[in-house]
Amino acid sequence: MPFPSLSPSRRFSTAKSSVLSAPSTMLASSAVEKPLPKSVTFATSGLGGVLGWILIHPANTIAIRMNLASMRGQTYSISSLMKQPNWFLGLYDGLYAGVWRQLFYATTRFGLFETARDKLHEYRGKTDFAARVGIGAITGGIAAYVSCPCEVAVVRLSNDSQLAVEDRRNYKGMVDTMTRISKEEGIAAFWRGSNPFVFRAMMVGVFQVATLDQFKDLYDQHFGLKYNSIPNVFSAAMTSGLIYSVVTMPLEASKNRMASQKKDTKTGKLPYRGIIQTLTKVSTDEGFLALYKGFFPYYLRCGGHTVSMFVLVELIRNAYKEKMI
């Protein structure tokens, strides 16, 4: 889940700046505001990430299933999905794990980013483009590594019902998944897929920082969508999301395969052991485009979570300011 951020010239200008305060309105306010306590910054980041994830979890489930079906030489389609009983509820398989993932990932990533960005600005007197890209990459990587155990649980729980009966792990929920993985495969199994997950998060941070504010300006100046309004944020996030979805989808596919894999029954070895080896193996065995199976729902997840998280975080923080400050 990527995090949007105001450009330095807008965020720290002594002129008036605009912030989201309601789904359809913009309120002008002084750029110099009393900063939120760090505990509130982190808490609202996590809560916004969780609420946003609840909205887009079905898209993530479909993306994982389509991607991993390719690994089994199968095709996962929406039409076949809708023929299954309770198909919509099934798209929320692994939601509890996804919520825990966001508690770690969004809280760490968004909270660390804002804290580091503001501290750097206090120290240097500015926050330039290169600094924001660097902070975005580093905080994204840290958040991904911290939340990787929950990501492994999300991947397995989201896809387990789609496997052949004899291949299913039949996890009963988040706690059962975590307990069984630690007992049956060892603690290290929680970080299978951590390398592509970390690199994906770093790339998302880089590309989002590099493009989101630029697209906000583009839609403001050329399409009449007022900067930081809901239509402006939505359009910019979905356009930015398209770019980094294309770039990071192979890493997402590698992470899914590494997180869900089992040891080969004959050799006792895992089929996917690293980023380069996984990308090469999939491209050789199934074709390069196999790494992009499930791209559209993955794109909806990326862009959708950017929009929903940003809007929800701002609404929660505005409500806090009205009540507590």
Structural class of the helices, strands and pairings? mainly alpha
Largest sheet: 2 strands, antiparallel
The span between the termini is 29 Å
Order of helices and strands: HEEHHHHHHHHHH
Mean pLDDT level: 87
Number of helices: 11
Total count of strands: 2
Question: What features would you highlight for this structure?
Answer:
single chain; 11 helices; disordered N terminus; two-stranded antiparallel ribbon; 325 residues; globular; mainly alpha; 4% strand
Molecular structure report:
By secondary structure, the protein is mainly alpha-helical. Helix content is 68%, strand content 4%. It has a two-stranded antiparallel sheet with strand order 1-2. Strand 1 (16-22) and strand 2 (25-30) form a beta hairpin. Helix 2 crosses helix 5, helix 5 packs antiparallel against helix 6 (129-159) and helix 9 packs across helix 11. The longest helix is centred in the N-terminal third of the chain and has 34 residues, at 38-71. It is globular and about 60 Å long. The two termini are 29 Å apart. Mean pLDDT is 87; it is low at 1-9 and 11-31.
Question: Could you give a quick summary of the protein structure above?
Answer:
By secondary structure, this protein is mainly alpha-helical. The protein is 68% helix and 4% strand. The longest helix is centred in the first third of the chain and has 34 residues, at 38-71.
Write the layout of secondary structure elements.
Layout lengths: L7 H4 L4 E7 L2 E6 L7 H34 L6 H4 L5 H4 L4 H30 L4 H31 L14 H11 L9 H30 L6 H31 L14 H12 L8 H30 L1
Antiparallel strand pairs: 1-2
Helix pairs in contact: 2-5, 2-11, 5-6, 6-8, 8-9, 9-11
